[in-house]
Every structure is written in structure tokens, then in C-alpha cells.
Amino acid sequence: MTRLTPKQSKAAALALLALLVLLVIAAIALPVWLLNRRYDAAVEDAATRLARYSRVVGMRDGLQAKAVQVKALEASHHFLKSASPTLAAAELQEVVKTILDESGGKLNSFSPLAYKDEGAYRQIPVALQLNAPLSAVKATLYALESARPYLFVDNLSIRAPYNVGARLDPSTEPELNVQFNVTGYAMKGAQ
Fold it and tell me: Rounded CA gap, 159 and 53, in Å?
């Protein structure tokens, strides 16, 4: 092993001291820098969330106005009032009779069919048979499909009577025999 001269040993000591000072500074500065970086990311994330929440708060008035509009639609008017199948069928019969009286049709038979539950709703179908001229049938079908509560017509069958005399006179409309099902919906929780 070679001995160092006093000048070399001083230089080595200063180099070791400088290395030690650098290691101490690095041991303190590196965690501080990493912690600062973490806080910068957290502040940036919080600022992004704050901007997003501010936009949401800015939409509040518009959303409240939309909610008022939706409440004004009163969705309950689109359903039958009673969830009980017999009461709902009676309500449906009353609506159909009113429409037939206004359009000029004559109800021959009205029979409730088996109801069916579909999630939160109850489907209430009824079978109808009536006699009416074509203009009254059109008016009846239009009134049923555009009525409140919403009603749906299906299984429609229209038959003209076999009467040769009625077909020869173009001024009179023949009475048509019409059969169809009308379906209304009720909310299960309704009274």
C-alpha cells in the first residue's frame, strides 16, 4: 500500500467530505422532491375534480327545470287508475263505451282476458265485439289509440256482412262486425 502525501490525503479527505455532503443532501432532497411531486399531482387532480363539479353545479338549474317538465307530464295519466284486474277492466270498459258512444258504434260484447304482470306494470287486456259502419270503426280505432290512459289495439278482425242489398246502395255504409282486443296498463302499486 502506498502512502499518500499530505496534499493527497487532504484532497482525498475533501473529496470524501464532498461525497458525504452530497449523499446527505440527496438523502434529504430526493424524498422532499418525490413528496412535492406527489402533492403537485394531488393538487392537479383536485383542481380537475373541482372544475368538473363546477360544471355539474352549473347544470343544476337546467336539470331542475327539466325535472319540473317531467313531473308536469304526470305519467300516472298514461296508466289505468287501479291495479286490480277487475277494477282496471271496468275502467277500460267505461273508456271504451264512452269512445263508442261518441263515434257511433254499438258494443255487442266485452270480456276481460287474463292479466299479465310485466315488471312494475300490469297488462290488462279485454276482448271486444261491436257493430259499426266503417267511418265509426276508423273513428273508434283512432280514439282508442290516442286515448289517455294509453290503450293498445291488437288482434283486429273486421268482417262485412254478406248482404247483397246493402252493397248495391252506395249511399249507405254497411254495418261491419269488428272484433279486437284492447290492452291498458296499470302500475302494480296503484290503488
Answer: 64
